[in-house]
Design goal:
By secondary structure, the protein is of the alpha+beta class. The protein has three domains: 13-201, Rossmann fold, CATH 3.40.50.620; 229-288, Roll (SH3 type barrels), CATH 2.30.30.280; 292-376, Translation factors (Elongation Factor Tu (Ef-tu), domain 3, Beta Barrel), CATH 2.40.30. It contains seven helices and 18 strands. The strands form three sheets. Strands 12-16-15-14-17-18 form a six-stranded antiparallel β-barrel. Strand 14 and strand 15 form a beta hairpin. Helix 3 (85-101) packs antiparallel against helix 4. It is globular and about 65 Å long.
Amino acid sequence: MSSPAAAAPTGLRVVAAMSGGVDSAVAAARAVEAGHEVTGIHLALSRNPASYRSGARGCCTIEDANDARRAADVIGIPFYVWDLSERFHEDVVEDFMDEYAAGRTPNPCLRCNEKIKFAAVLDRALALGFDAVATGHYARLERGDDGLVQLHRAADAGKDQSYVLGVLDQEQLAHSLFPLGDTDKPAVRREAAARGLLVAEKPDSHDICFVADGDNAGWLREKLGERAPNHGGEIVDDASGEVVGHHEGTYAYTIGQRRGLRLGRPAADGRPRFVLDIEPVSGTVRVGPRERLAVHALTGERPRWCGTVPSVLEGPEVTVQLRAHGAEHRAEVRVEGERVEVRLLEPASGIAPGQAVVVYEGTRVVGSATISATQRVPA
């Protein structure tokens, strides 16, 4: 079977995942223009669409399904809805709740790409005789000298989504298409308008798609219920050990958080305090000054490699990204089986277990791992 990387052959049978937003609609249209036989699909991810996001925000609503269907009609391709709500709830929503209950900070978009869009969808597509899945992600695919498919950053650095695709392995990349990787967002919107797509000016979705009002803490409080390891505890000053406040659940906090702490007394020096550590079993949240957030090393687990598994990565081209829209950090990376040890050449701030570390060599994504531990810069 042909591998649809950069300069993919024409005539592939392609499933275009259409969220109802402008990016996926233009990606589907470009796949058609590239000579592929394209079928549009919309993923029904909510057991009850009203229980997830409301409004036209590009994910998980009946409006979005209708927008995707209208776009497919304009493009002139068949369109179907695939119900993956049970799989999404188990692999993404439940994982999100479990991670927060354990005091970690997950990224559900990575988990969705890993488990849903490029696992469940791709598996079904290949079983049905399709060759590839096309999405509206901003990333590029290239064929390396070794014949493997490489994942690279998008041409538009501001929209680059290679971080959330860092969980894809070689088999998944070999059956993926990212038609927007060489284009910026304003150009995509202009193209959508020129094609007569009504989603040309539809706003992007920025929050977690299954948290309807964007209130993560409130959503977790409602959903976790008795599953939460504690329903309250103390907020403690890390330096003095003094109790400076109380909370209703550790799941409402993330490392680096400043707002919403409701501390009963200010720091001795009057400076703001930030969440430094979360201990879900004891229910203790530790706070301290910004400089105590600085991390110089971290450990990752459950690595996912886009190609050949590396052993040591070092040099000026090696960087890591620690948040979806975060900066690149120069680093040295060592791989020891299922452990990835990262030494940051300059400290990074507010890094939490549960986040993903994505490793780059230049613009190429090498792979990713889930952060399990961090080492702070000594006080």
